[in-house]
Write a sequence for this structure.
């Protein structure tokens, strides 16, 4: 374990900043997961990291960003810039008087992990120019990363997306929040509110001859730290052009998805291009521990052989449209070449005739919505016919295929997955 202090904005000769460390972390191919929880975000802070986020998608499978909306500290333009990242991004807001105020940046990999905890918000000044302090902790292979485990345990309901005050960022949500004028200002209004609250002290006291001005004159100014190489925030015109382009693309996308009745705000919703695993489930005393072929275990679920620390999130949707609790499931691989995950919906006895079928829709690299179809329900025969028609392996094996939601919906239109309104309001 290596602990490092990151100072910024004061001792400019050292030229250290959290922005520099974040860029290095995002470009480090040892990491496959990036998560952050921050109180405030600005378009300049977010856009300074945009190219590094986009580049990191080649090796980072999981991105999760949670931003607060308190005290008008986050602007409409900042959230729209987050949309350009194309990752799982959320806002957190509570009607209580306490505010959402963490500043945590977390990187994880198979061997190495790193966390930065300090006073640095996701703003240009917070990441570079303000006088700030942070601690960076690096863990290497075989070290117990206790601090990271404690963070993930403490903020569990935020990081598994189950907190009721957590909302996934969409353009529709941004527009609704902005329309209220109570929570989300645009960048111009945010700066105006800040100036009115804290004041432009220099301008106010230039014409003042009071004791307050005399005291103020005791203090001088300090130079601002320059942005590190590679941290290039967008300015207003560039951001507006990009946002308009994204809005146009989304409008065109809606035209080719007529079954979407209204905006999807739920983090477990999907579109017609998600990957789907359709699999017969074998018999056994503990048949809820479902075994999968090694290729499915690795390529569909993202697990690694021998790494039983890997977990996925499952959520069951029954045929009445009821969405179950999130199941945090461990990947289990044993020397007997069993590669399995447990499913919570397998609570009844294994049927005497025919096999149950599991339909797993991949929502994200580690998130899967699924339905367990028992032989007695009408949808079972429909899905089985689709499965057997596409399956090309030996008949002595359990039938399993990889498809997509568009094909599945066309052949099996009665599955509860297609009731999108049920997902939107869960």
């Amino acid at each position: 374990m290596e602990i490092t202090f990151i100072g910024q904005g004061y001792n400019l000769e050292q030229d250290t900043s959290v922005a520099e460390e974040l860029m290095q972390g995002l470009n480090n191919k040892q990491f496959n997961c990036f998560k952050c929880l921050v109180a405030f975000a600005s378009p300049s802070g977010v856009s300074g990291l945009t190219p590094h986020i986009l580049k990191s998608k080649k090796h980072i499978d999981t991105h999760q960003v949670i931003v607060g909306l308190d005290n008008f500290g986050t602007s409409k333009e900042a959230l729209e810039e987050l949309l350009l990242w194309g990752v799982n991004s959320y806002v957190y807001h509570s009607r209580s008087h306490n505010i959402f105020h963490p500043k945590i940046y977390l990187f994880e990999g198979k061997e190495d992990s790193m966390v930065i905890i300090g006073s640095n918000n996701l703003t240009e000044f917070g990441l570079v120019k303000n006088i700030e302090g942070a601690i960076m902790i690096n863990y290497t292979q075989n070290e117990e990363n206790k601090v990271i485990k404690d963070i993930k345990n403490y903020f569990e309901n935020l990081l598994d997306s189950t907190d009721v005050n957590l909302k996934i960022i969409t353009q529709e949500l941004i527009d609704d929040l902005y329309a209220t004028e109570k929570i989300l200002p645009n960048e111009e209004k945010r700066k105006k509110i800040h100036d009115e609250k804290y004041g432009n002290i220099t301008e106010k006291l230039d014409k003042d001859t009071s004791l307050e001005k005399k005291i103020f004159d005791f203090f001088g100014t300090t130079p601002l730290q320059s942005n590190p190489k590679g941290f290039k925030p967008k300015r207003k015109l560039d951001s507006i052009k990009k946002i308009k382009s994204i809005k146009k693309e989304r409008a065109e996308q809606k035209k080719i998805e007529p079954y979407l009745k209204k905006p999807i705000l739920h983090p477990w919703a999907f579109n017609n291009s998600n990957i789907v695993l359709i699999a017969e489930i074998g018999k056994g005393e503990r048949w809820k521990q479902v075994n999968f072929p090694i290729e499915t275990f690795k390529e569909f679920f993202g697990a690694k052989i021998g790494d039983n620390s890997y977990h996925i999130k499952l959520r069951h949707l029954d045929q009445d449209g009821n969405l179950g609790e999130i199941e945090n499931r461990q990947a289990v691989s044993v020397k007997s070449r069993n590669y399995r995950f447990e499913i919570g919906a397998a609570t009844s006895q294994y049927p005497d005739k025919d096999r149950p079928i599991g339909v797993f829709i991949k929502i994200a690299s580690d998130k899967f919505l699924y339905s367990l179809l028992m032989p007695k329900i009408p949808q079972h025969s429909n899905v089985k016919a689709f499965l057997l028609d596409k399956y090309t392996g030996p008949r002595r094996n359990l039938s399993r295929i990889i498809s997509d939601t568009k094909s599945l919906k066309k052949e099996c239109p009665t599955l509860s997955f297609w009731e999108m309104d049920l997902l939107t309001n869960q």
Q: What stands out?
A: Residues 259-264, 421-426 have pLDDT under 50 and may be disordered. The domain at 275-424 is CATH 2.40.330 (At1g16640 B3 domain). Residues 214 and 236 are 37 Å apart (CA to CA). The two ends are 42 Å apart (CA to CA).
